[in-house]
Amino acid sequence: MKFSSKIKVEVGASKDEGRPILNYVHYNHAAHRLEACDGFMGILLPVTDDKQDEDMLVPVAAIVAARKASKNADCEIFCQNKNVGCKGTFWVAGEGNYPNVQQIMPKVEGKPPFFSIDLARLKRIAEALGGGNTGVMVKLKRTAIDSAVQVDCLGDSGAVGVIMSAFPGNEKVVDDGLRETPEPTTPKAKSAPKRARAKKAK
User: Fold this and answer.
1) Contact at 8 Å (CB) between 78 and 84?
2) Which tens digit of pLDDT belongs to each residue from 140-187?
3) Backbone angles phi, psi at 144, to 5 degrees
4) Residue ranges making up the domain that contains 150
5) How far apart are CA 59 and CA 75, in angstroms?
6) Integer Cα distance of 88 and 183 in angstroms
7) Helix H or strand E segment including 80
8) Distance from C-alpha of 62 to C-alpha of 86, rounded to nearest angstrom
């Protein structure tokens, strides 16, 4: 199977040895994707050319090795007889049933709200408001992609942060949640000064 080398799906896998199933990256055959969750966050990555006909627990080491071997092209791993291979090296696939990730995905009816945010700024505000605890509540001023984002501390300090939209202000929002640059307009011709017009009339 092939997948993007730019997305580090393995970062979502748990490092807790007490949760061995979540230590793997799950290949979901029905959804044609890789899934990595640790119980608090998850990363889903579509795959292509997936000839594997059943689900499999892929060791994180195999994903990392495939990225190093890809040289910025698509990563590729092979699944065969409960083994996962990359460039002649094989790892034993995990055993067990991976949780149904689809059950925890947000269920949104109609068009979902979109917003843009600079993650570096969010991290700075979270650390500032949380006093070392990075748990914060993110609120939207309005459900639009160019709106400011309010960040509330989970404690009782009453402190509040705000992050302006990550998109430039000269762009407009379109209905499908994507951004669109306004079409250039032709500047209007400037009218002649009043003195010039009066002189021409004589």
Assistant:
1) yes
2) 555 455 556 666 666 555 666 766 665 544 444 433 343 444 444 455
3) -140, 150
4) 119-180
5) 15
6) 53
7) strand 78-80
8) 7
